[in-house]
Amino acid sequence: MDVEVPRTIGLLWGRDEPGRRGPKRSLDVVRIGEAAIRIADKDGLGAVSMKRVAAELGVSTMALYRYVEGKDDLFVVMLEVGSGGLREKFSTDWRAAMEEWCRDYRALLFAHPWVLQVPLAGPPATPRQLDWMEAAVLGLEDSGLTVPERMQVLLQLNAYVRGDAALNLSLVDAGMSPDGWPRLIRELADPERYAAVLRVLETGEFDKEDDPMEQFEFGLARILDGIELLVESRRKG
Amino acid sequence: MDVEVPRTIGLLWGRDEPGRRGPKRSLDVVRIGEAAIRIADKDGLGAVSMKRVAAELGVSTMALYRYVEGKDDLFVVMLEVGSGGLREKFSTDWRAAMEEWCRDYRALLFAHPWVLQVPLAGPPATPRQLDWMEAAVLGLEDSGLTVPERMQVLLQLNAYVRGDAALNLSLVDAGMSPDGWPRLIRELADPERYAAVLRVLETGEFDKEDDPMEQFEFGLARILDGIELLVESRRKG
DNA sequence: TCCGTTCGGCGTATGACGTAAACAGTTTGC
DNA sequence: GCAAACTGTTTACGTCATACGCCGAACGGA
């Protein structure tokens, strides 16, 4: 009835076999992950190559393969090591707790934009990933929601935070001036077929850049409003 | 005051310069995009290489560069060509319209899972991408929401549909049996530190696989509930 | 009609990438 | 001390995106 645990995931859980024979190891998965993260933070996920990470550590490329099965594995390690920043104590009120959770998450994504580009391979299975999940599940525990409903809430919040961050970061990433996109659309779009979009652009509400944080909080409040409806219906009915 | 339009985006808007001298072109961006999509649908986005796309079209690798500036550009074309499936007529009621929009979007993502993996480079700027936006904006037009609020709603729905699809598809992708993940967690997670998560797993609500479509609709309804609150507050107050 | 310009498709070449395999040096257990 | 086990390195291979130069096709002007 044993579960087959992928090797690197085991390592991240501290399941390191004690050293026996041979030379001492000069690295460990965490240091490798930190080096990769340093590169990704500076030059983007695309700049993370085995060679570059090895160089950052002053070691040959192939040395990494003693600690990590391959590049996919390296991504797993990066996600784990880079997923800090979760606060210790959350509010007891479920709504406040969820707000805090989302803000922490958002801060993480803005600090490490590459997280959004890592091709995710399955549900969370490493300690810090689970820390995030634990905090969220715990925060919802006194909400009165059923278990599937709580999972649904998690999905929604997770998706919202990621979506918001992805949009804001991609704008920066595309190197567009704030009014670059509206100008482009006005130039290209057939005014009849895209009447509604153009009408929105004409209001000028796009050019004046609202505070992204404010936008984020507004949307979050709306989502939590919806969830609160559900919570209340579960409490009453 | 001219706007600099990226070459391939111009092509997609039909801004093809009329043929002049030289041999007739044997391809066009749309056929290239279709070939790439055929490959991505079958073997994933990772299998889309210039060589492979060219082979699919019975042409040499370098021929593609006459139509597409590079691989990033190819992705833009793929997104554009693959973004069909939007219905013609939407309900006039904003909520029903948004439901239809989300369902169409979800269907698209399940038909072409690679869409979620394409590194997106900026806001939508091609015809079909804008069709989606037009439909959504139009659907919200009689909601009474302000323009920024409508954009917020769009972001939320977009994020939710993508997040839901990403989760469901990544589970399939990781090749996990339905109970694979819970088993793994139970094996690895410290029962004290991850008490809440483990409590959720114990309910067994995870192993029995709910209909994903039903889950999707449930979550969507909750989000729309939240938006409806906002709509009503704008109508009354 | 003919020629020069222009352009489409192809072949080759380059440098980066991920990683398999063989190797050499070091530590440990017997 | 010797062999096993384990370390990091070197070399090598196949694949990738793509820069460059060539050839021949098609058209415009003469």
Keywords:
homodimer; DNA-binding; mainly alpha; 59% helix; 237 residues
Give your account of this protein's structure:
2 copies of one chain form a homodimer. Chain A is built from 10 helices and no strands. Chain A is mainly α. In chain A, helix 2 (29-43) packs across helix 4, helix 5 runs antiparallel to helix 6 (127-139) and helix 5 runs parallel beside helix 7 (147-173). The model of chain A has no long low-confidence stretch (mean pLDDT 92). At the A-B interface, helix 6, helix 7, helix 8, helix 9 and helix 10 of A face helix 6, helix 7, helix 8, helix 9 and helix 10 of B. Chain A binds a DNA duplex (30 and 30 nucleotides) through loops.
Helices and strands in order, then pairings?
The structure is a homodimer of 237-residue chains.
Chain A: H1 7-12, H2 29-43, H3 50-56, H4 71-82, H5 94-111, H6 127-139, H7 147-173, H8 180-188, H9 195-202, H10 212-236
Helix pairs in contact in A: 2-3, 2-4, 5-6, 5-7, 5-10, 7-10
The structure holds a DNA duplex (30 and 30 nucleotides).
Distance between the termini of chain A: 42 Å
> In oligomeric terms, what are we looking at?
homodimer
Largest sheet of chain A: none
Relative strand content of chain A? under 5%
Q: Roughly what is the average pLDDT of chain A, rounded to an integer?
A: 92
What shape does the CA trace of chain A take? flat
Percentage of residues assigned to helices of chain A: 55-70%
The secondary-structure element order of chain A is: HHHHHHHHHH
Question: Radius of gyration of chain A over alpha carbons?
Answer: 22 Å
Structural class of chain A: mainly alpha
Low-confidence region ranges of chain A: none
Number of helical regions of chain A = 10
Strand tally of chain A: 0
- Largest interface (CB < 8 Å): A-B, 72 and 71 residues
